[in-house]
Amino acid sequence: MTKILTIGASSSQNSINRTLANYVAHQVNGAEVNLLDLNDYEMPIYSIDREKASGMPALAEQFKQRIIESDAIVLSLAEHNGTYAAAFKNIIDWASRIEGKLWEDKPMFLLATSPGGRGGKTVFEAFQAYWPKKGANVVAAFSLPGFYQNFSADEGILTDDLKTNFLTQLAQFQEAIIQNSLSVSE
Ligand SMILES: Cc1cc2nc3c(=O)[nH]c(=O)nc-3n(C[C@H](O)[C@H](O)[C@H](O)COP(=O)(O)O)c2cc1C
């Protein structure tokens, strides 16, 4: 079974990005969905001085280990003032200091959603501009605007053109997972 690490990049209890990531991961055929809650990885705010004084927090190592143990990643970004939610940024800053590429080249379905009309597009684009250098293998990407109008827990993505686009990306993600598992087993 494909192990999918599923991350809503928000510490909010009612995170719409966690909801979306969880929904999307459950659409993948034959997947074991492993939800990661950012609240389980709360650490002091990163600083080089803290790192020198106290080393790497065990939680940062554990976060990285969750990536290593996964076969694929579904990541949905919350947007705060045009960028990452602070809770997520802190975790990735710490974990990026561990040797190797943070995202380990695992096939990733990148998502973002917000209640507004841009669907978190600014942070969505920022992620794609930077993190591929650090092993983010974004094989599918979809941003959902107007979450409360365009998503329902029962029916998923509601609007036809959004749904068509989403299903294309989902098929791409599934194909990349298959190809990756074939190359790993060679
Ligand atoms: C401090 C703060 C800044 C925000 N900035 C943005 C923003 O730049 N763009 C946007 O689309 N929504 C913004 N929002 C609204 C969020 O998209 C909304 O709170 C959303 O629910 C966050 O995702 P989450 O539910 O997964 O935490 C902001 C919300 C907060 C609390």
Could you characterize what this model shows?
- This protein has 186 residues and is α/β, with parallel strands linked by helices.
- It has a single domain, classed as Flavodoxin domain (Rossmann fold).
- 42% of the residues lie in helices and 23% in strands.
- The chain contains seven helices and nine strands, in the order βαβααβββαβαβαββα.
- The protein has a five-stranded parallel β-sheet, with helices on both faces. It has a two-stranded antiparallel ribbon with strand order 4-5. A two-stranded antiparallel sheet has the order 8-9.
- Helix 3 crosses helix 4.
- The longest helix is centred in the C-terminal third of the chain and has 26 residues.
- It is globular and about 55 Å long.
- The model has no long low-confidence stretch (mean pLDDT 97).
- Bound molecules: flavin mononucleotide.
- Flavin mononucleotide binds next to helix 1 and strand 4.
Q: Helix segment count?
A: 7
Instruction: Let me know the average pLDDT.
Output: 97
Helical amount: 40-55%
Could you tell me the radius of gyration in angstroms?
16 Å
Describe the global form. Answer: globular
SSE order: EHEHHEEEHEHEHEEH
**CATH topology call:** Rossmann fold
The number of distinct structural domains comes to 1
Strand content: 15-25%
Q: What is the name of the CATH architecture?
A: 3-Layer(aba) Sandwich
CATH level-four homologous superfamily name: Flavodoxin domain
Question: Helices and strands in order, then pairings?
Answer:
Elements: E1 2-9, H1 16-26, E2 31-36, H2 48-54, H3 58-68, E3 72-77, E4 79-80, E5 83-84, H4 86-95, E6 107-113, H5 121-130, E7 137-144, H6 147-150, E8 151-152, E9 156-157, H7 160-185
Bound molecules: flavin mononucleotide.
